[in-house]
Specification:
Heterotrimer of RecB, RecC and RecD. All subunits contribute to DNA-binding. The protein has 24 helices and 19 strands. By secondary structure, the chain is α/β, with parallel strands linked by helices. Bound molecules: adenosine-5'-triphosphate.
Amino acid sequence: MSQLDLFAAGGEPECVMDHGLYLNYLIAQGRIRHSDIALAKLLNKNEINDIFYLILLLLQAEQNQHSCLAFTDIDWNNPFSLVMELMDETIPMTPWACSTAKKIWQGLVNHHAVGEDKPLQLFAQRLYLSRLANYEVTLAERFKQMQAQKISVDSSRLTALLTDYFGVTSLSTGEVDWQKVACAMAATQGFCVLTGGPGTGKTTTVTKLLAILQSLYHQAPLTIKLVAPTGKAAARLSESILGAKAKLNLMPEVSNLIPEHAQTIHRLLGVIPNSNRYRFNADNQLHLDVLIVDEASMVDLSLLAKLVRAIPAHARLILLGDKDQLTSVDTGSVLSDLCQGLTLGEQPPYSESLTAQLNELCFEGQTYLHPRESEFCLADSIAFLQTSHRFDSHSGIGQLAFSVNNNSRAQLSHTIEQGYQDLALFDLNTHEYTALIIRAAMQYRTYLELMHQGANPVDIHHAFGQYQLLAAVKEGPYGVKTLNKRIEQQLSSQGLINPSGRYYAGLPIMITKNDYQLKLFNGDIGILLPDEEGQLKAVFIDEQGEHRSFYPARLPNHSSVFVMTIHKSQGSEFSHTAMILPPKQRASRGINRQLVYTGITRAKHKFELIAQPKVLHMAMVKSVSRCSGLRERLLTR
Ligand SMILES: Nc1ncnc2c1ncn2[C@@H]1O[C@H](COP(=O)(O)OP(=O)(O)OP(=O)(O)O)[C@@H](O)[C@H]1O
């Protein structure tokens, strides 16, 4: 029984509470900010009571990128997760010892700030800031509308095209080609999510899909746009589509109708400088028939809501991404909300009508897929690719990613015992820490030598992008800041850089704040290079491979990036990736399965892990999720 229930059972609680002292503890322990208190007071007509504290909890949840505060998730005995040892014993851990959860909830239902067109909203036992609730409503409604779109397709032509691109499924193996299934689903629907781990063929499948669609509609070809959340991810998508087109050997008349250039979502929507609004919106919609959004797990709730508002009613939307990666840096977890419940090796739950249609389109009417009920109303729009074609049984990276993602210690031990060529695992100790710095400096040598030889910026950037050291934390000896300094010292001692001032030739930087005027966005990477006149400029390569240069003084917030956080690496891929996790005593709350999985899956050919085994095990056990009501809004019950 919780403390609240105990009191409710008739005890005589001590109701006098020193709110000032309690709030000071919340601030001292970094749970809330002064501005949160001001806002909570404003919303609660200056009263400090139970609802005031609930609003504070909601603001804390929003800062932690949750879309809402779920009533059922509140730890009523210590709602702000205060650390007992840092508290005065006379101060309670909970601010509402005199009330019951039920009473607090009822107070909220009738509260003056709660309701439609009010600053706060309630939905399914969740408290929201209205702005975030409205984004969820927009997404749920638009996804449902898109899915309900009637798409008329010539089935026999589609069947023939699916056979052309994927072949005939052999009855003897009986193995389902999930890429073919995904293509059939996306070709016949207005909305589709295509999820799968690294190298499962998301880009290949979508390229085949676009080829099939353009063949089906060859008399009036579709306008297709490709987008990704960051410039880096957009550049990668362009590269992958180009590669997939070349591999597929498409007929020129079809190939020419598939775009190769992806852009950022911000660029597609048209940023209005100094505002968080876009040129394209619900009143001025985009001109397109098909929109492909890659790395959808990185797109936050607000941006995706603004994007779907700008998509015309007739258009199709296809979201690509890995449901198991870290969620967006900003609020929300849309892709993982939509993909909840998918399990490797299992067929996702599809309705009777969809399974019949897919069996007809993909398997000549043979019963390969079986219907399974789901109360999730978008279940028929979720395609799940399950086989990695990049990492075969000889690849340690794939095995390691799989072990971590499935939290399988047995599989992890097996992977380590195999001694894979593409994996190097080091136990974290002083010796290995120093060895890592030396190895990292050796890897960065290549791009710096190119710079000294006067190579062109595209080649220098390319060489820099081959290797990346990732850290799980920012602060402390195992964090980004210290490691950046250590690598800088190492490179300087080898005469490759001369870090006498803040800026020097060869300094790699990452933008940490969007600048819509300069069109430089969070995550963009630049390298400080001298121009023809010897002036030092930060050079960025955009998604079209063009380079843009800026005087350092003009740059928005940025930091050096010999080392980047795993969070910042999302959407990027490096031929050789190294990742360091802090030791157990420093491994804070932020180390978890999604973080480690995301770090591993950045590696294409070689992956190094520098970590204590117990920290890796600890991370594997800990799976995090964000609070959201999106899934709930999409249930049929
Ligand atoms: N059905 C297949 N059979 C054989 N090889 C395939 C198949 N599908 C994809 N591949 C190959 O596997 C590799 C990865 O494919 P692709 O880039 O499409 O995957 P992805 O899921 O988009 O990867 P990423 O993790 O980079 O997002 C490519 O080299 C591709 O040519």
